[in-house]
Amino acid sequence: MSDSDDDLLELAGIGSDEESDYEPKVTAGRRKTAKRTIEEDSENEDEDEELNPEEDPYPLEGKYKDEEDKMRLMQMDESKAESQTIEKGSTSKKLRTSKLSELKKQREKKSVKEDRKRKGDDDYMDVDDEDEEEDDDDADLKELAGYGDEDEEEDYYSDGYSSSRKGSSRPKAEFDQSQYRDATLDEINNKIRSTRSVLEKFLYRDEFDTFIPGTLVRVNIGPSKVTGRPQYRMALVEEVRRGGKPYKLFGKPCNTYLKVSQGDSATVVELSCLSNSPFTDEDFDSYKKRLSASTTHSLPTVGYVEDKFNELRNMSTRRLTDEDINRMMARKEELSVYEMNTAARVRKLGRLREELQVALEQADRQRANTLQSEISQLSKFFKGTQNTSKLEQINIRNQKSNQEFIRKAEKKLVETKRKQLQNNDFNDPFSRLRTNPKVFYKSAYKEDDNTQKSEEKAAEEKDKNKIKNSVFRREGIDALIKDINIDLNFDI
Question: Biased composition, Acidic residues: where in the chain (predicted)?
């Protein structure tokens, strides 16, 4: 099974990352040839040796080195585990590519021998058997090469998961009655579960908006407050909405959203919030509990699951025409502008305008209308970036107004000076005089020193005046003696 078959099976919930690779059942319709020569058996044994699984670096389920590696990935976060799984898939694909050339050489040798053998074995092999063997050879080559393009998806669903309505030999009454039975968790997981990776594969197809609503998805609602691990809820896709705010999906811009519901509650989520893992019993029980309280929703029946399964299979197996591919490329081109920087967008806009001018000169109205539509789309993107901040617009407008006012004032001043020079009149009393400012510095240290000196001088002058005005200076020593009181007591 090719890589694209694995991705396509995920659209119906088959072959998820946590399960082993899906092995299609061998149907009874495959007929073997009447005779197998010993030479053919030896060739098949040689081919099996070329595809020996021991040479695969990931022999366990095609994704793990051993049980220890499997347990380690299962304990990791889903996004990290998915990235490592993708890396391992690319490694395995390179290994298959290296073996492809050897297998082709063996096919060429085998075809030469079969041509010789058919000339003598026409009585034992009919045309149908020859076609079936050729189909087997082509399928092996495609599987080894890992063809995964969207136009190589005819074998999306195998006979092992084919609709139960085909080839059924039960009575009609019993058949109709079974279609109204509630679908089980395994039936939902295997047939109508949409995953993030596969939705991204079919995102740009025309049938996506019609067939994806009605499938079930596993939505990540954030980490648990108790355990801190991501929490998931089972939800029904109600509607596909395009043209929203772009976000990153596998590193690429995406503007598609899904309206999902759980009972009577509905919300809009990004495709990046969806899980690639299958629904668990806990998810299923929680979903049934919400549906039991709803008056408008119920569990899907077996008949509904079969019908939706057939729709998904028809979408995946339909051959893409040139018009389909052109429309898908146009949708991707519309989103590529979000990956460009400003300079690249400006260059693209200029190139589109030049092409529009050429189309108008050549009177190519269809081409001109297409280019005009692209220019309008790109211009809207520029308008959206300019209108992100109203305050920024006001600031820009005020700056322009101030610059214009200054320019006019300077122009008026130049005109006034020119007139003064012509009239030799510089006595305008209202004109501003040119002055040169002069700054005087005064040290605080000098001020403190002068204050201290003046205080000391004042104290000295005060002492001098006190001595000068004393009694001794005015009346002499006798005046001082006269004022002395002597206490004498005489005993007689």
Answer: 40-58, 123-140, 148-157
* Six-digit token string for 132: 């079936």
Identify the three-state secondary structure at position 395.
Answer: helix
Q: Which residue reads 């400006």 in tokens? A: 346
Whether pTM > 0.90 for this model: the answer is no
Phi/psi of residue 459, nearest 5 degrees: -65, -40
DSSP state of 301: B
Q: For residue 439, how many other CB atoms are within 10 A of its CB?
A: 4
Q: Are residues 52 and 44 in contact, defined by beta-carbon separation less than 8 angstroms? A: no
Average pLDDT over residues 351-357: 86
Structural domain containing residue 210:
172-320
Cα-Cα end-to-end distance for the chain? 157
What does the pLDDT look like over 255-297, one tens digit per residue? Answer: 889 999 988 888 999 998 899 889 999 999 999 988 888 888 8
Q: In angstroms, rounded to a whole number, what is the distance separating the alpha carbons of residues 87 and 284?
A: 31
User: Which residues lie across from 248 on neighbouring strands?
Assistant: 253
Written as six digits, the tokens of 432 are: 């501003």
Whether residues 311 and 361 share a domain: the answer is: no
Query: Which one, of 161, 295, 274, 129, lies nearest residue 216 by Cα?
Result: 274
CA angle in degrees (0–180, nearest 5) for 374-379-383: 155
473 pLDDT tier (thresholds 50, 70, 90)? low
178 and 300, same domain (yes or no): yes
The kind and range of the H/E element at 242 are none
What's the CA gap between 42 and 38, in Å, rounded? 6
Q: What is the mean pLDDT of residues 305-312?
A: 90
Q: Are residues 145 and 230 in the same domain?
A: no
User: Taking phi first (over 0 means left), then psi (-120 to 50 degrees means alpha), and beta for anything else, what does residue 50 get?
Assistant: alpha
The DSSP call for residue 216 is E
